[in-house]
Every structure is written in structure tokens, then in C-alpha cells.
Amino acid sequence: MFGYIAINKAEMKFKDYDVYHSYYCGLCKRLKESYGIRGQITLSYDMTFLIVLLTGLYEPDTRKETVNCIAHPLEKHLARTNEFTDYAAAVNLILTYFKCKDDWDDERKRRQYIEARLLQPCMESIRLQHPRKVAAVSANLKKLSALERQNEQNIDLMSGIFGDIMAELFAYRKDEWEASLRKIGFFLGKFIYLMDAYEDVEADISLRNYNPFKDAFRSDPHFAENCRQLLTLMMAECSREFEKLPILWHVDILRNILYSGVWCHYTEISSKRGSDPAGRQDVNV
Q1: What letter does residue 60 receive in the DSSP assignment?
Q2: 159: closest CA among 223, 222, 238?
Q3: What is the C-alpha to C-alpha distance for residues 46 and 2, in angstroms, rounded to an integer?
């Protein structure tokens, strides 16, 4: 469930992209410093959004430095880091670890088993730093797995559980902004779960894996259109709550992600399936 919360680079100003990328580089840097190469390889753009959101809201002291990039060793990049970079690095590890563990438990994917074992030492220190966060992710993913084994088809229930996970992770501290951050995380989490199910539905049908969209994909000629309406509702709620926050820093970057970037993957998926501009689809499965 990674890769959905990204920017729309084509619609972003160059200066905003440089700022966004510097937070991404900062996250990569702190993952390596805190958890080694095994932590660095879990890097994703999704957590960069969390850093930029919390930085925009709380306006912390942020360090800027020029660093070498493992992906581009001949180039140097600006990296921005602050207290939220370290928090996002921990969250990134938590989600990756439990995703790998879940894949092993449910589908016996050996690669995920190995990755989970490699990340286990990192998780020991994270559990000490963020016990409530780790416990919430673990408990809710266990609940999701149990319901998947029962073939639960209530999409609101299933996506809501993942929404609860993200709500807990977005609530950085107990203050006047906690409720809004929880709502943003909740609806963003539901969006991620729904988008993941929407993307994987064909493969899950073929592999006989669980997917709450299976029946609708087979039988509903308006499947893609209905999914888009559902996804739009989730992002509307998320964005509405975001606009209540007194954010001045990086607001254009955040709006690019919430109003445009999150839809790039959906457009790509729908295009591959041959959906028409209205989102309708001819399904023969």
C-alpha cells in the first residue's frame, strides 16, 4: 500500500519541486543514519507528504545540508531534516515491517519474510520510542487479516480499519490540531486502501486472493466510475479537513498532492484498463 501519495510533477513549480525533493532526500538520509541500509531501502514518497504536512503546520527548525545521493553518486542534493523527518522514518519502518509480515502470514511470500526479519532489529528500538503507534498498527492489521480470511465484503469497514491506522500515525502529538490530523490520516488511509484494492482487483481474482472489489468488478459495468466517486469522496473529506489547518509553509506542495498527485496513479490504472473518460468500463472476467 505504498506509492499512492505522491506529487503531480507536471503541475508543480520548479522551486516547489526542489523543496519537496529536499525533504525526500532528508528522509532517505535519516533512514540510513537511524536504521542502516535495511532502513534506507524502505524509502517511499508517501512519508514525505507526512513530513511536509507536519512541517507546514508546526514550523519547526529545519536543517539544510548538501548530501551525496546513493541513487545518483555523481550529484549532490539539498536535504532538509527536522524532528518530523525522524518521526516519518520510524513510521515508514513500522508500515513496511508489518506489510512484509502480513504478506508472509497471508500468502507465504518468502521475500517478505526475509525483509521482515531484516527489519526486526530496527523495530525493537521503534517499539521503545513509539509503543502506541506500533501497537495500533499491529492490532488493526491483525483485525484486517482476520476479516479478509472471512471474506468480509463491507468495503467501508475494511477501508476504515486502515484509516484508523493512518489516523493514529498522523496524530503526532496531543494538541489542538490532533483531531484534524487524525481526520486527514483517516480519510487518506481509506483512500489508500481503496486505491490498492482497485489496482489489484484483476490480479487478486486471477490468484484467488482476497479483494473487496471482486464482485463489483465482475458484475458492475460502472465499476470504475463508482470507484472514482468513492475515492473522490475520501479525498474531499481529507482535503476539507486539511483546509481548516493554519498552514502557510509549503501549502502549494500539499495542495498539489491532495488535489492532483493522488490521482496520477488512478489515471494510470484506468488508462491501462481502457476506461473511457467518464470512468466506465467494459468488464468480462
Answers
A1: -
A2: 238
A3: 7
Structural domains of the chain ordered from first start:
9-273 (1.10.600.10)
76: part of which helix (H) or strand (E)? strand 76-81
282 pLDDT band (50/70/90 cuts)?
Answer: very low
- The single-letter code of the amino acid at 12 is M
- Which of 169-178's residues contact partners 24+ apart within 8 Å by CB, and which partners? 169/50, 169/91, 169/94, 169/95, 169/133, 169/136, 169/137, 170/50, 170/53, 172/54, 172/58, 172/84, 172/87, 177/57, 177/245
Q: On the CB side of 69, how many CA atoms lie within 13 Å of its CA?
A: 16
Angle 225-228-231 from CA coordinates, rounded to 5° = 155
Indicate if the pLDDT at residue 279 is higher than 60: no
- 0.90 exceeded by the pTM? no
**In this structure, are residues 277 and 228 in contact, taking their beta carbons and an 8 Å threshold?**
no
216: closest CA among 145, 146, 144, 285?
Answer: 285
pLDDT computed for residue 161 by the predictor: 96
Task: Give me the residue label for grid cell 484498463.
Answer: 273
Q: Specify burial of residue 256 (Cβ count, 10 A radius: 0-12, 13-18, 19+).
A: buried
Of 3-7, 44-48, 65-69, which range is least confident? 65-69
Rounded to a whole number, what is the distance in angstroms from the first to the last CA of the chain? 24
Tens-digit pLDDT profile for residues 161-178: 999 999 999 999 999 999
